[in-house]
Amino acid sequence: MGCTHTDVDCDDDDACTDDSCDAKNGCQHETIDCDDENACTEDSCDSETGCLHPPVDCDDYSACTKDWCEEKDGCHHENINCDDSDACTADGCNDDTGCTHTPISCFIDNHCIATSCDPEVGCGSEEVHCDDYDACTTDDCEEDTGCVHEKINCDDNDACSTDDCDS
């Protein structure tokens, strides 16, 4: 019968290689390229099943960002808008809990000034009105204590009159 030439089986049972036979060098097992050119997948190869392309996890675990992936350039993290349009709060963000809206203090250490906060314009103040509508007192305001109403002295230094104040 003479010479026979049977093809060599170069299959290495690895789904991650491209198997071939080179007449000079014998079996060749070239690693296959699993790159799907999608930045939103993690490319790998399983020797039993072949190329794998599970999605990448773009979550940065911050409640202060919106996370997403674009095929061309991968993960993106954009800060969320925490502005509540309230001039009476300081807006911020906590990575664990998200947006915060801390009330601002309009306090002034002066009992003669009344402060308040308007959500549209913020802190405002106005003088405290100490008028007690009593003609027999002088009305004043002291920063430390607030309104003071002192009785006026009606003494005319005349022993022949009784001095009184009629409010």
Briefly characterize the structure:
By secondary structure, the protein is mainly beta. It is built from no helices and twelve strands. Among the domains are: 17-52, no CATH class; 65-103, no CATH class; 113-151, no CATH class.
Can you give the helix content as a percent range?
under 10%
Query: N-to-C SSE series?
Result: EEEEEEEEEEEE
Read across the widest sheet, the strand sequence of neighbours is 1-2
State the distance separating the first and last CA atoms.
143 Å
- Silhouette: rod-shaped
User: Which residue ranges are poorly predicted, with pLDDT under 50 across at least 5 consecutive positions?
Assistant: none
Polypeptide structure, described:
The protein is mainly beta and 167 residues long. Among the domains are: 17-52, no CATH class; 65-103, no CATH class; 113-151, no CATH class. The chain is 0% helix and 40% strand. The chain contains no helices and 12 strands. It has a two-stranded antiparallel sheet with strand order 1-2. Strand 9 and strand 10 form a beta hairpin. The model has no long low-confidence stretch (mean pLDDT 94).
